[in-house]
Amino acid sequence: xxxxxxxxxxxxxxxxxxxxxxxxxxxxxxxxxxxxxxxxxxxxxxxxxxxxxxxxxxxxxxxxxxxxxxxxxxxxxxxxxxxxxxxxxxxxxxxxxxxxxxxxxxxxxxxxxxxxxxxxxxxxxxxxxxxxxxxxxxxxxxxxxxxxxxxxxxxxxxxxxxxxxxxxxxxxxxxxxxxxxxxxxxxxxxxxxxxxxxxxxxxxxxxxxxxxxxxxxxxxxxxxxxxx
Length: 228
Fold this sequence. Notes:
It is a single-pass membrane protein; Single-pass type I membrane protein. This is GOLD domain-containing protein. This protein has 3 helices and 8 strands, in the order ααββββββββα. It is α+β, with helices and mostly antiparallel strands. The chain has a single domain (4-183), classed as Jelly Rolls (Sandwich), CATH 2.60.120. A hairpin with a 5-residue loop joins β4 and β5. The protein is elongated, with a radius of gyration of 30 Å.
């Protein structure tokens, strides 16, 4: 998977002076705003994967030193009646293979870290501990490219658009979380309703059987036996 933050940084730093048709400052502002909106479009892209029993899925992002990356995820189940244990294992490894984040048996997560070296950072979702159920994972990955103090954009419009992009990413993450939670709760409620329905039907059969037994038993009890 391509790194979103790297893609955004390349766009943001590709501004060039105007060609004479428009003032250079105007051209730079337009390019900065366009780049910022493109980065917003990449930030809000959500991903969904299906984890079968005894399986794992791993992805990676190429980061530079001091870049920040955030991974948010929520485990759910699209299948009706499949609500149950939705725990998975999640971890992030740095380029040297060391664990930066390790969270076993979790169903929701929001993890951020700062890259301490250049290279490929790998994050994995594992359902290897489950022997039966498959689980759906919805996750978002977004990051902030490190920019030295002297390289920060001076255009206030660009700053505002970047801030708007970060807020939009947070709203999108929260929306994905709400959708998954609603699905989990709906599946749980429907599964509970089914159990209640089947239990009620079972009780009805038991009640009818009990009534039939009592009628025959009482009838037999009051029968008069005659000896011929």
